[in-house]
# Entry
Amino acid sequence: MQDAALLVIDVQKAFDDPAWGPRNNPNAEANIASLLEYWRSKQRPVIHVHHSAEVLASRFHPSRVGHDAKAEGQPLAGEPIFKKLVNSAFIGTQLEQHLRDQQIENLLVVGLTTDHCVSTSVRMAANLGFQVSLVSDATATFDRMLDGIEYTAAQIQTVHLASLNDEFCQLITTAAILTSD
Amino acid sequence: MQDAALLVIDVQKAFDDPAWGPRNNPNAEANIASLLEYWRSKQRPVIHVHHSAEVLASRFHPSRVGHDAKAEGQPLAGEPIFKKLVNSAFIGTQLEQHLRDQQIENLLVVGLTTDHCVSTSVRMAANLGFQVSLVSDATATFDRMLDGIEYTAAQIQTVHLASLNDEFCQLITTAAILTSD
# Structure
């Protein structure tokens, strides 16, 4: 873990839009802020990934406030920011090359949303050969509908964590990190 | 859909091992067989992806019977087979190049397991720019445990389909395909 880069995915104001619907884990951002403070205090690498959109109507278009980082995930000067247009942090970006150049093999992943961009990025990181730890309480998602049935964000969160665990990553909690080393 | 390639993921005997635990959708293989027969009758492209393992102890090692395709997903001569070592059909394979070379932009995805290799491959296909339809009743998965709680395969299946739908793919049923065109 001491060698890991903290990878902060899509902690952006666009997700504050109530149109997303009910969300789980309101503490995710506070946990992300704690992890950022801790990682920076240890002078370990912090890497940000921000979602960007080419369509002006998107909440993630660079001209809109939704594209801005939330206060809890605000990058500091000198921390790399990779802009992506799709869910995976590794497609259309130089993130993989950056990690190889910096000889970073371990990733500690936090961010939004658990089942979309976080899951996609964790899966691809693992399949590219990186060792991934996912901070289960520093992620969150939204309720989703299928065939008229509403799946709660909490249910989606736990099922996705169960699918990712051991196959693509190891799960860890914010408290375990802050007290472990 | 007439332009789509049928992408058959990991329909291999290794998944018959009872050690995987309870599974959902026992009809998945029969639906895959029906779709293969239909796709071949229309002379549309069929592409197979098979999981392979370098570790001899793995059920997916090429020397073991688990590596063989199930009867319902048996490739015919001339149908390309891409061997992968990780979950994503696109990492460490020439699948993307093959699709570009053949000018295939649409994929109809079936196979195992919904939340591991199918989800990972669907996500990456979509993020690479392919249009993906996922046949919801031609996929299946297994019960999974997390923190002492067992999540049923049926629950994992529906939650993952809810997360994939509209964001990475369109869901469709076997019957809808067989009766549509």
Notes: The longest strand of chain B covers residues 131-140. The interface with chain A takes residues 86-88, 91, 115-116, 119-120, 123-124, 126-128, 144-146, 149, 151, 155-156, 158-163, 165, 167-168, 171 of chain B (CB under 8 Å). The two ends of chain B are 9 Å apart (CA to CA). Chain B has one domain: 5-178.
